[in-house]
Write a structure and sequence with these properties.
The chain is mainly α. The chain has a domain of 50 residues. Helices cover 63% and strands 0% of the residues. The chain is built from three helices and no strands. The longest helix is centred in the first third of the chain and has 29 residues. The radius of gyration is 19 Å and the shape is elongated. 4% of the residues are buried. Pfam families: SPC12. Component of the signal peptidase complex (SPC) which catalyzes the cleavage of N-terminal signal sequences from nascent proteins as they are translocated into the lumen of the endoplasmic reticulum. Dispensable for SPC enzymatic activity. It comes from Lichtheimia ornata. Belongs to the SPCS1 family.
Length: 82
């Protein structure tokens, strides 16, 4: 068995859409929160830590093939014998 077989994960089209939405929403939200908190505390480090936490959370939610990304599997037509 090849190493690539361990990384063969499938998600459906609706799951791809959800993953893409989360990929845009979470980092943007954490960037805004990080900017506001960092600006109020006058700390660039706090801003970057909050944004980094958002990126880590995004990776944990989006990269693994969670079951929520495969709720609408495609139903293929049976093969026709001709």
């Amino acid at each position: 068995m090849a190493i690539a077989d361990y990384f063969e994960w499938t998600i459906d089209f609706e799951g791809q859409k959800l993953a893409e939405q989360l990929t845009h929403l979470i980092p943007t939200l954490f960037a805004v929160i990080g900017f506001v908190v960092g600006y109020s505390m006058q700390s660039l480090l706090v801003t970057l830590e909050i944004f980094g936490a958002g990126l880590v959370l995004t990776m944990l939610l989006v990269l693994p093939p969670w079951p929520m990304y495969n709720r609408h599997p495609l139903k293929w037509l049976p093969a026709s014998m001709q």
